[in-house]
Amino acid sequence: MRWLWIDDILAFERGREIVTLRGVRPGDAPLPHHFAATDAPDRGAIRGAGSACPVMPASLIIEGCAQSGGILIGEMLGFRERVILAKISRAEFDLDAPAPCTLRYRTVLVQLGETGASTESEIARQTPGASEWRPAGRVSLMFSRLDRVAPQAAHGTSSVVFGAVFRELLQRAGIDAPGTPDHAANPHGSARAAEPTRKADD
């Protein structure tokens, strides 16, 4: 996986839900190319009315939800299959994600079938100095189990490029990552992930 758009797994319940976090930082690569100058109250309260405000592109927020869902689905399959994003069924955004802020993706597994899966994510935003999380959007996604629907296309490709950072992300949450001794001993699923790792604040 070349780009990772989640920073931490806050909570994980196998086959049901994953809660992930993403910090939006001014130095993030795409942000300098996504400025919005407006008098809209939501942005003005953060940067001052009319000022330029770098925001996380919605496409990358969707990607964060997709990566979260991919972990939830992939772990159920023991990370043995190629699971790819097939369709964005819904993407609604109520708030921008300006730098700096933190995004929380609460993603639930809606359905896991023989050829695909679907997830729903609720997005919340927290700004510096604020204690509350504000609802920021909703994303519904469909995934394809490539080995089942197009085995020839999947042949010779890896399920996920598990770099060191991604493995560490999974291991911090108690999820057996591919390439680790725990996963080799139990390749069909993570026993440690059967219970929630941490409780996410509402």
Task: Please supply descriptive tags for the structure shown above.
6 helices; 202 residues; two-stranded antiparallel ribbon
Sequence-ordered SSE layout with sheet pairings:
Blueprint: E1 8-13, E2 17-24, E3 35-37, H1 41-47, E4 52-54, H2 58-76, E5 83-93, E6 101-112, E7 116-126, E8 134-145, H3 146-149, H4 151-154, H5 164-172, H6 181-185
Antiparallel strand pairs: 1-2, 2-6, 3-4, 5-8, 6-7, 7-8
Give a brief description.
The chain has 202 residues and is an alpha+beta fold. 24% of the residues lie in helices and 33% in strands.
Plain-language structure description:
The radius of gyration is 18 Å and the shape is globular. A six-stranded antiparallel β-sheet has the order 1-2-6-7-8-5. The protein is an alpha+beta fold and 202 residues long. A hairpin with a 3-residue loop joins strand 6 and strand 7. It has six helices and eight strands, in the order E-E-E-H-E-H-E-E-E-E-H-H-H-H. The protein has a domain at 15-24 and 56-173: Thiol Ester Dehydrase, Chain A. It has helices at residues 41-47, 58-76, 146-149, 151-154, 164-172, 181-185, and strands at 8-13, 17-24, 35-37, 52-54, 83-93, 101-112, 116-126, 134-145.
What's the story with the biggest beta sheet? 6 strands, antiparallel
First-residue to last-residue Cα separation: 30 Å
Second rung of CATH, namely the architecture of one domain:
Roll
Cα shape: globular
The SSE order reads EEEHEHEEEEHHHH
Q: Class of one domain in CATH?
A: Alpha Beta
Percentage beta strand: 25-35%
How is the largest sheet built, in terms of strand order?
A: 1-2-6-7-8-5
Gyration radius, rounded: 18 Å
Specify the helix fraction band.
10-25%
Q: Kindly name the structural category.
A: alpha+beta
Q: What is the count of β-strands?
A: 8
What oligomerization state is this entry in?
Answer: single chain
Mind telling me the CATH superfamily name of one domain?
A: Hotdog Thioesterase
CATH topology call of one domain: Thiol Ester Dehydrase, Chain A
